[in-house]
Write a structure and sequence with these properties.
It is an enzyme of class 3 (hydrolase). Its EC number is 3.1.26.5. GO terms for molecular function: 3'-tRNA processing endoribonuclease activity; ribonuclease P activity; tRNA binding. The chain is of the alpha+beta class and 116 residues long. 36% of the residues lie in helices and 20% in strands. It is built from three helices and four strands, in the order H-E-E-E-H-E-H. Strands 1-2-4-3 form a four-stranded mixed beta sheet, sandwiched between helices. Helix 2 crosses helix 3. The longest helix is centred in the middle third of the chain and has 18 residues. The model has no long low-confidence stretch (mean pLDDT 93).
Amino acid sequence: MLKKQNRLRGEKDFEKIIKKGERFWDIFLFLKVIKNNLRIVRVGLVISRKVSKKAVERNRIKRQLSEILRIKINEINSGYDLVFFVKKGIKTRSFSEIKESVEALLKSAKIYSERK
């Protein structure tokens, strides 16, 4: 689970990113990024019922994404707000495929600095 300071909360924050954020997409993920005036990265996850009608499946996907981002949070350049939108095809993907997709999106947004 992401630390509380790294979670995006509040409807106004989400609306701002959705309206003004830069868009990046992958096969089963869509990312909106906007610069914030903070020295931290904040992340929000959006998983609609179109992905799955079962809350159990949506929560599983949310936990997987949250864990990937918790591990990668230190490799993301600070000062950004991110919102990940999940598309339908993600249910059948493995954890490693989702991880690769997240990394690819962060790299295409040019906010990811891979550390070893």
